[in-house]
Amino acid sequence: MEQTARVRLDKWLWAARFFKTRTLAAAAVAGGKVHVNGRRAKPSHELRVGDRLEITRGAERYQIVVRALAAKRGSASAARQLYEETAASRDTRARHGALRKLAALVSPAPSKRPDKKSRRLIHRFKQGL
């Protein structure tokens, strides 16, 4: 990865592969889903090595420390060298993942689509009739 002196936050998030496009990264930062050193930041915020980021992406929360800067997107293995996830963050994500799997087992997906009679029963149940 190419080392640079200063990198915009949205560009770094895209290069570190937290978001698929730079536009999505900028929208997440502007929407308050990314905090730098405990504070909200703008997409144009310039990152430094050692900054602590809290990234919320869907149901997942990452707490990372910036280890290197890059303005260009590279391979996934190169992107992993740009940051270090905290141990507490990894443990929390693993615990929440296990809970999501258990929740999926409680209400499994049906094996087929409901037929007309079943659909009517579902509508009646939802409407409280």
Structural features, described:
β2 and β3 form a beta hairpin. This protein has helices at residues 9-15, 22-30, 76-80, 87-106, 116-127; strands at 7-8, 34-36, 39-40, 46-47, 52-57, 60-66, 83-85. The longest helix has 20 residues, at 87-106. By secondary structure, the chain is an alpha+beta fold. It is elongated. The chain contains 5 helices and 7 strands, in the order βααβββββαβαα. The mean pLDDT is 92. It has a single domain, classed as Roll (Structural Genomics Hypothetical 15.5 Kd Protein In mrcA-pckA Intergenic Region, Chain A), CATH 3.10.290.10. The strands form 2 sheets. It has a 5-stranded antiparallel sheet. The termini are far apart. α1 packs across α2 (22-30).
Blueprint of the fold:
Elements: E1 7-8, H1 9-15, H2 22-30, E2 34-36, E3 39-40, E4 46-47, E5 52-57, E6 60-66, H3 76-80, E7 83-85, H4 87-106, H5 116-127
Antiparallel strand pairs: 1-4, 2-3, 2-5, 5-6, 6-7
- In helices, the fraction of residues equals 40-55%
Strand content: 15-25%
Q: Assign the CATH architecture.
A: Roll
List low-confidence stretches: none
H-E order: EHHEEEEEHEHH
Number of strands: 7
Q: Count the domains.
A: 1
Cα(first) to Cα(last) distance is: 62 Å
Largest sheet: 5 strands, antiparallel
Report Rg: 20 Å
CATH superfamily: RNA-binding S4 domain
CATH fold-level label: Structural Genomics Hypothetical 15.5 Kd Protein In mrcA-pckA Intergenic Region, Chain A
